[in-house]
Amino acid sequence: MVRKVLTGILLALSSIFLAFSVIGIAAIWIYREPLKKEVSSNLVQIDGELSQAEVTLEQTEGELDRALRIVETTEKALQELAEQTGSAEDIFENIQSTLDDRLIPDLKTTRERLGTARASLENLRAVLNRITNLIPFVDLNAPDKILADLIIS
Question: How far apart (Å, rounded) are the C-alpha atoms in residues 145 and 124?
Answer without folding.
Answer: 12
